[in-house]
Amino acid sequence: MKTERIIVKGADDQAGIRQAAQLLRAGQVVAIPTETVYGLAASAYDPEAVKAVFVAKGRPQDNPLIVHIADKEQLSAVAAAIPETAKRCADAFWPGPFTMILPRGEKIPASVSAGLDTVAVRLPSHPIARAIIHAGNLPLAAPSANTSGKPSPTSAAHVLEDLDGKISAVVMGDDCEVGVESTVVDLCSDPPRLLRPGAVTVEELRRVLPDLVVDRAVLAEPVKGQKVASPGMKYKHYAPKTETVLVEGDTAAFTAFVNRQIGGVAICFEEDAKGITCPKLCYGTTRDETTLAHEVFSVLRKADELQADVLYVHAPSREGVGLAVYNRLLRAAAFRVMDLKETEKRRKGNVQP
Ligand code: TXA
Ligand code: MG
Predict the structure, then answer these.
(1) pTM value?
(2) Which of 34, 102, 114, 203 could form a disulfide with 124 if both were Cys (CB 3.0 to 4.6 A apart)?
(3) DSSP assignment, residue 307?
């Protein structure tokens, strides 16, 4: 299949918007930019088109998709009930990088939600994404537009790297502003539950949902055989081909550690860089979690090109958007964490005064 590049200069570029919307109405799969990551969109009402999304990504059948709408009024077309909490969240966080889990409406095929009786819904803020949903007059089921398991795509080039020849078209937009996928909150559970951290932070969520709990899968490895609230959280994910280890510790401990390794590449903060003697790639500074989120997937893709034996990634703080970056890196590393703080403590503990 030839993958068409659709050039869209902005939300008022009617020709490109119309072309993308027509393909989607005809049951085709089209990658579109959103403010978080690129999405692989298909009509949420069309089970065949939805199936094609799973096939193109190589996505496991039990991992449900997010349905994207263009305005709040469309929510009642995709959800069977809209609780008070959903209205509050929509007012606070939409349009934007926020997804809520609600009871699934009857027009949404079971395959969108991998057989669950719930549906994930998001109203993106990206003007081109919204213009395409408007023009097609359809809600769009759209997972991230990467091959399943690989780092999510934050540019049109990343999408083509994974899916050229496998999908009908890519809308060629700018790089994504946020860089990590939306915050996902389950409003069908009581109390509401954070399933995936994103740019809408726990602190912001608790202002609207004071009793919000954080699902254990956000920071812990799933126990084999145990049911998970969000199926997407159980897979090794966002992963470069190269083996990856997440390293906790301060600048001095991290630089000393990576300098002792052979054949590794350090994915580090700017503060670390001058002390590092092995190959390295920086993804921002410790104090700026927003930039780390913006860069994290792109640096993982770049690191793969260096063909190292191991990638050692300096772990960010879990504050604010840092929690989302940490969550993605934990999965990229398949939960392999090296805690230099613990090693340091143990070493000091063993030294007799
Ligand atoms: O920012 C985003 O959310 C991007 C852009 C394209 O909008 N989309 C995205 O989709 O990240 P995806 O498919 O890569 O991730 C969807 C996540 C998965 O972890 C999935 O398990 C979870 O949402 N999810 C979807 N429907 C669900 C449901 N009904 N119940 C629980 N989790 C659900
Ligand atoms: Mg994804």
Answers:
(1) 0.96
(2) 34
(3) -
Q: What are phi and psi of 144, to 5 degrees?
A: -65, 145
pLDDT digits (tens, 9 = 90+) for 105-153: 999 999 999 999 999 999 999 999 999 999 999 999 999 999 999 999 9
Q: Say if ligand 1 is within 6 A of residue 196 CB.
A: yes
Query: In this prediction, what percent of the chain has a pLDDT beyond 70?
Result: 97
Comparing CA positions, the residue from 118, 108, 335 lying closest to residue 224 is 335
Q: Does residue 99 sit in helix, strand or coil?
A: strand
Q: Is 183 exposed, middle or buried (0-12, 13-18, 19+ CB in 10 A)?
A: buried
Place of tokens 């509401």: 192
Write out pLDDT tens, residues 49-96.
999 999 999 999 999 999 999 999 999 999 999 999 999 999 999 999
Q: Give the ligand 1 atom nearest the CA of 152.
A: 14
Any idea which residue has 């780092």 for tokens?
151
Residue 124 alpha carbon to ligand 1 centre in Å? 13
Is 294 near ligand 1, meaning CB less than 6 Å away? no
CA distance 194 to 162: 29
Does residue 267 line the site of ligand 1, with CB under 6 A?
A: no
